[in-house]
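F.,

This is the one I mentioned.
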């Protein structure tokens, strides 16, 4: 399982610690009893403890049943082959693909097959409407401009054996909408948020982190 940052200047391996936030768990202080339990309440409590013990035994017996963990990897849910554009393709060409292929992200691939960027439908619409990502008004742009003027580069990518749980976590924490999958520096697939949701529906026993 490997994440990369890939762009015009090549690719670089990205350590997990630089991608994901460290979990923060606050320590809890011990609590003390505020009043004594009288004899009647103690008797009732012992009865409840017996019921809880029986329930715990039943729960343990279920836990001991053989269970095969379901861990999905990127190549099992990725879309392949991938619809792509070359850097000099026009904004109008990108719009045509968004409309006919019903996709929202287009990887930009050089003539030699290297992934150099990615452009989203949202970025194109902001570009044409003259509204920035921060919703500031600016001059309208042309539909004949090349997509390399709009693409995001470098791009975070992952290998085919990446655990889908890490990809889902990446989408949530980094607000990423699509993740290209690369093999030997070549684009081999792409995973979007919709692909992850579809995988959860198909594999409803998918083990997720608590």
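My design for it:
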């Amino acid at each position: 399982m490997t994440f990369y940052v890939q762009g015009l200047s090549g690719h670089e391996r990205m350590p997990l610690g630089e991608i994901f936030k460290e979990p923060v768990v606050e320590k809890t202080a011990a609590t003390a009893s505020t009043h004594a339990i009288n004899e009647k309440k103690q008797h009732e409590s012992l009865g409840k403890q017996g019921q809880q013990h029986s329930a715990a035994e039943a729960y343990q017996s279920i836990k001991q049943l053989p269970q095969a963990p379901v861990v999905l990897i990127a190549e099992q849910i990725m879309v392949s082959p991938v619809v792509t554009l070359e850097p000099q393709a026009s904004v109008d060409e990108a719009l045509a693909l968004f409309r006919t292929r019903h996709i929202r992200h287009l990887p930009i691939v050089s003539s030699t097959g290297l992934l150099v960027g990615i452009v989203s439908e949202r970025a194109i619409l902001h570009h044409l409407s003259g509204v920035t990502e921060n919703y500031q008004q600016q001059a309208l742009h042309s539909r004949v401009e090349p997509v390399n003027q709009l693409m995001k580069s470098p791009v975070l990518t992952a290998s085919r054996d990446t655990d889908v749980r890490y990809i889902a976590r990446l989408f949530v924490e980094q607000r990423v909408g699509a993740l290209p999958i690369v093999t030997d520096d070549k684009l081999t697939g792409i995973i979007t948020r919709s692909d992850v949701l579809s995988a959860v529906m198909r594999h409803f026993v998918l083990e997720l982190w608590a």
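The mean pLDDT is 80.

Talk soon.
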